[in-house]
Amino acid sequence: MAHRAAMFAFGAARGMNTYLYAPKDDPYHRERWQLPYPEPEWRELCGLIDTARAHGIDFVYGFHPGKDLCFSAAEPVRTLLDKAARLYDRGVRTFAVLFDDIPSHLTDAGDVKRFDGSLAKAESLWLEVVLERQPADWDAEWWFCPSYYTPDPSLARVFGEFEPGFPETVGRYLPAQVPCFWTGPKVVPASVTLDHMAEMGERMGHRLLFWDNYPVNDLTMAEEMHIGPLTGRDPRLPERVHGHLANPLLQEELSFVPMATCFDYARDPGAYDPEASWETAVTERFGEVNLEHWRALRLFCERDTDSAGATTSSEPERAALAAAHGYLLAHRSEGWCRELEPWRERLERALR
Questions:
Q1: pLDDT tier at 304 (50, 70, 90 boundaries)?
Q2: Binning pLDDT at 50, 70 and 90, where does residue 67 land?
Q3: Is CATH 3.20.20.80 correct for 2-279?
């Protein structure tokens, strides 16, 4: 929570205006989403909501009800709205219903019959019921993440093959005012074009929210360190995209550098210069005198896709990395440097 609050202050100064709270390791967000927060956790969450408001940030609470959900049952809708009401009373006005990373097919026999075997139809109509049954005097906004959130084949390899026409089915049944999350052509795309987002927006028939998996390094990316700038995002995306949300690094202190570039892009995509943004972020946090060390570390991390360690190709590069290694040793007691410890060890092996 302390890191989130620090990111609010850091991001708000760079134009951040929205925060989606949806950590899958919060049991009351996913595994036990039906249960109310116990009082200590509730106080913490309320403190975060208040901090967001103080920085002019829209705090969005994400529900992840998809695991073992019976879409045709009435009780889960009541449960979600009861929980949302408590958050609404605390000032939350935007909610997200997230069906990412669950099996790609319906598992309840009654749901299969009622929704013609279509998970896309079940998810979309479930949110329609939520909107119909929310209190009439609410001015809440609702967001939606379908289970099919990218055409990346890795999604089907993990969760099973998706029904044909999933985006079009969502477009047919999801309430028109609800924007949809989309990660781009891949779960972790190197580039995202306006044409791609325009095509998917038309297929879904809804505004898109670009859920950008950068600089995050969880799950299969745990051996990676993304400390470079955000690149490959079309400056024209705002023409077809409702919002841009970036997933930060697991390493809390290091996350500020790449996240600064994400904020710079989102604030003004047309003027965004990845290298200038990155250099400014590094200079502000670590000093201009250390910029070359960070360039060397960034290059090493970008090449280091093997946990056994990367290799170097030239004497000038080795000299720069050796100097960066000395810089790390001099700062090894600081939090950001402790977060880099596994990569420092790989750097040592590469230098040997």
A1: confident
A2: confident
A3: yes
